[in-house]
Amino acid sequence: MKTWLAVLCACVFAFGSTQAETQRVHVFVALADNEHQGIAKVPPKIGNGDDAANNLYWGTTDGFKSVFGRSKAWKLERTEENPTPQILERRSYRHTSKDCVLVAEAWRGKNIQQCLEAFFANLRDRKSDLTAFVGHNGLMDGPVAVSPLDASTSTDAIVLCCMSANWFKPHLEALKARPVLSTQQFMYPGSFLLRDALEVWLRGGPRSEIRMAAAKAYATNQKISVKAAAGVFTKLE
Questions:
Q1: What's the CA gap between 38 and 136, in Å, rounded?
Q2: Does 167 fall in a domain?
Q3: Could you tell me if 109 and 49 are in contact, meaning their C-beta atoms sit under 8 angstroms apart?
Q4: In 3-state terms, what secondary structure has residue 8?
Q5: Residue 1 lies in a domain
Q6: 20 pLDDT exceeds 70?
Q7: Antiparallel, parallel or unpaired: β 74-81 and 177-181
């Protein structure tokens, strides 16, 4: 009897462990928008915040859809067109070797403030193990209110926009969110940074390794030294 009970308990424990191991990542991409954001103007075709397919942060070579579409580590499972008036496309992926699902949303450029509100709400509600924001630093254009959260657990965040460390720090601290990758200079938030940072995060690597993975990817893309590229990202370790 004890033997069968032990086997049953082991099976229940194994099932519970498998369920708990699935990690969730949510990526909020605010499309570049020449008209509605305080960005350095880009060519009109890639700076149209209502055109995800050609947008700088989504459809171009270094945009999210293209970068993760080429990745052998992520398999596309589902695509939704216009799931809400503010979101032009939502894509769901599963990692090919890690137990992780990723959902990414392309938000209209004019709705960047709502995108940021959704990003912070996702952190507040602990809906994902890691929540990422990619795009223009909308906090430079206008404030987004965040109320302090009384929580005993933390959650991880990646913020890929210009000088995100100082601008987002009070909000992340209020929500008890741990930044694993942020920036301290003006920069180009290509999604190759997110792709390489996630590989380190998924295997439980320290923030120093996440920062260096991003630095190496940025150095390759911008054709600068790794040392110079590392200066773009905040030392969080």
A1: 8
A2: yes
A3: yes
A4: helix
A5: no
A6: no
A7: unpaired
Give residue 151's domain range: 23-230
For the residues of 86-126, what is the DSSP string, one character each?
Answer: SEEEEEEEEESSSSEEEEEEEE-GGGHHHHHHHHHHHHHTT
Through-space distance between the first and last CA atoms of the chain, rounded to whole angstroms: 51
Instruction: Please state the pTM of the whole predicted model.
Output: 0.92
Q: Is the pLDDT of residue 166 over 60?
A: yes
In three-state form (DSSP H/G/I as H, E/B as E, the rest C), the secondary structure along 129-170 is CEEEEECCCHHHCCCCCCCCCCCCCCEEEEEECCCHHHHHHH
Q: Which residues, 6 or more positions from 182, have their beta carbon under 8 angstroms from its beta carbon?
A: 158, 159, 164, 165, 168, 233, 234, 236
Cα angle vertex 99, ends 96, 103, to 5°? 80
CB proximity list for 113: less than 8 A, separation 6 or greater? 138, 141, 142, 144
Number of domains in the chain: 1
12 located within any domain? no
Determine the residue type at 191.
Answer: S
| Phi, psi (deg, nearest 5) at residue 32 | -60, 140
Location of structure tokens 């769901």: 92
> Would you say residue 13 lies in a domain?
no
Please state the rounded mean pLDDT for residues 154-158.
98
Checking if the pLDDT of 5 tops 50, the result is no
